[in-house]
Structure formats: structure tokens, C-alpha cells
Amino acid sequence: MDEVEVVVAHSERVTVRVGEVFLKIDSDQTHLDVEVEAMELAPVPTPEVLWRKPSVLAIGRVPGRPVAKLGEPSTASPAAWAAAGAAVRAVHEAPLPSWPGETVEKIRSDLDQECAWLIDSGVLPEDLVSRNRRIAEAALRPWTPVFVHGDLQPSHVFVDGNEITGIIDWSEAAHGDALYDLATLTMGHPTHLPDVLAGYGAEVDLDLIRGWWSVRSLSAARWLLEHGFDPDAPGCEFDVLRSAR
Predict the structure, then answer these.
(1) Is 194 exposed, middle or buried (0-12, 13-18, 19+ CB in 10 A)?
(2) Cα–Cα distance between 88 and 196 in angstroms, integer?
(3) Alpha carbons 126 and 129: distance in angstroms, whole number
């Protein structure tokens, strides 16, 4: 009999694997609704939806392995990273989903709250937070909305050799800035940014990518700490903030 593997578990979501089946249990049914509809819309390989019940989604396993994981060196080839960039471009060129995304004003307001918490709680030095808040401001400008994955960590992009076999975890998909997806994919793996952009096939302002690296790292820190994750692990969010220039 297959053992039950806990893939991720916190107060908002639990994902377990039994053999070739993943069960996603979410406290917010909206996340599962978005995930299913986004996978139907996405013009890239996604997991097969096996069945749904209230608060539970069963999906099939995606073959291959993640292109990378945050905090770990990537063993994927430059061609695999370029394929990931091409897949992201395909998503961004697809029709917009029916639901909106966050506004620039909302992102800025939330970011300021998180920066204040990081300083007041003593989690990070004020000068580090302030420097990254300045860098982040570059990304917080008007953009033309596209269909974004919304949480395109490299661990969510699966490859087999140089081929994309699937992109998982679409619960944050919405309207958004194309550069946010590119930044999320390459955060912690900046040496692979040129490969991703080669596959993406468009000119990109690197200051905006760096801005989104700072936005994501600052904004995620409190949630990660409160849910049992370590943003101060080598190569993770706090290292990204320390290396920002």
C-alpha cells in the first residue's frame, strides 16, 4: 500500500500525496475554484483534475521534476529554464481570466504594512527593510494586465530534460504584471534569469524584476514565519533581501 506523504501543511491548506494522486484541502473554496478554472484556461501542461468535492481537489501527478527549488542549486539545463520562459510567455499571451487581480495600490499598502511589521518586530534591520522598500517601488507602477500564474515558484514548474511537463499550483492565478511571474520564477536563481528571458522572448527592464524580488521577499516574510517556514534559510527570502542592490 502507498504511504501518505504530507507535501505541505499549514492552517490554510494541506496537500497530501497517495501514490499518483495529490489531495489538496483548502480552507477557502475560492482558491480551489480559481485553481481548476485557471488550469482549464492555461495553454500549458497542467495536472489532471481527477475529482472535486467541497474543500478538496484531487489531481494527478505531473511527470518530471521541478526546474529548481528556492534555497537549493538548480541542476536543470539552461535550455530547460528557457523552456520555462517560453511557457510563461504562452500563459501571458492567453486571454485574461474572468476574475481580477490585486491593484497597485493594494500591493503597495500591504507591502508598507509588512515592512512596518518587520521593523517593529525586530525580525530584520531597519536599513535592510528600507533599502529593499526603495528597490521595490520600481515595480509598483501601472502595467498592462496579463493572465499570470501568481505564484510561479521554480518548484511549481516541472521539466523532463529540456521539456516542460507541467505547471502546478494555480490558486493565485489572476490579472497581473507579467514581470511578477518572471521575478517569482527567478528569485533566488538570478543566474538563470537570462535563460528565462531568452525563452520568454521579450525585452525586460531588470530593475523591475529586482523590484518584484524585493516586493515578494518583504511581503511573504511574516506569513512564512507564522506558518512554520524559514525565510532565513540559505538562498531564501532574507538572502534575496540582503543581496539586493
Answers:
(1) middle
(2) 9
(3) 5
Cell matching residue 38: 485557471
What is the pTM (predicted TM-score) of this model? 0.95
Which run of H or E residues covers position 29? helix 29-41
Cα end-to-end distance, the chain, whole Å: 51
* pLDDT(56) > 80: yes
> Which CATH number applies to 62-243?
3.90.1200.10
Percent of the chain with pLDDT over 70: 99
List the grid coordinates of 32.
Answer: 480551489
Label residue 11 by pLDDT band (50, 70, 90): confident
With beta carbons less than 8 A apart as the criterion, state whether 102 and 140 touch. Answer: no
**Spatial separation of the C-alpha atoms in residues 158 and 24, rounded to whole Å:** 18
Strand pairing partners for 200?
A: none
> Cα dist. 200→23, 81, 111 in Å?
32, 10, 28
**Whether the predicted pLDDT of 45 surpasses 70:** yes
The answer to which of 9-13, 123-127, 192-196 has the lowest mean pLDDT is 9-13
Among residues 152, 147, 180, 176, the alpha carbon closest in space to that of 164 is found at 152
